[in-house]
TrEMBL record:
Role this protein plays: Mediates the uptake of pyruvate into mitochondria.
GO cellular component: mitochondrial inner membrane
Protein name: Mitochondrial pyruvate carrier
Main localization, broad class: mitochondrion
Keyword Lyase: no
UniProt-annotated location(s): Mitochondrion inner membrane
Pfam families (alphabetical): MPC
Organism: Linum trigynum
């Protein structure tokens, strides 16, 4: 006797953005970038790269909007990109706060 999968599981499996498509797997693997960014929260702020984090934020914002403009709606794509934008903004805020709290360099003392 073969067990039939539930209707919800079948619906998920056969969804146009389900696990049988690239529309599922691309955002799923993109979670690794978000997790790497979260792991970098423990790094010193001076190690954070402005260009990298700006790219992460831009990617998150652009693709979040795109995920809601396409049919079918891709909620996995939306969630990963909202997370990307959020972690990127947090990293940028750490870098900016670190830069604004940095001690000003001492002026060179005049030679006599």
């Amino acid at each position: 006797m073969m067990v039939q999968p539930s209707a919800k599981l079948q619906s998920f499996w056969n969804h146009p953005a389900g696990p049988k498509t690239i529309h599922f797997w691309a955002p799923t693997f993109k979670w690794a970038i978000s997790l790497a960014n979260v792991a970098d929260f423990v790094k010193p702020p001076d190690m954070v790269s402005y260009p990298q984090q700006l790219a992460v934020v831009a990617t998150g914002v652009i693709w979040s909007r795109y995920s809601m403009a396409i049919t079918p709606k891709n909620w996995n794509l939306l969630s990963v990109n909202v997370c990307l934008a959020g972690t990127g903004l947090y990293q940028l805020s750490r870098k900016i706060r670190h830069g604004s709290m940095a001690k000003p360099a001492k002026a060179a003392e005049p030679k006599e």
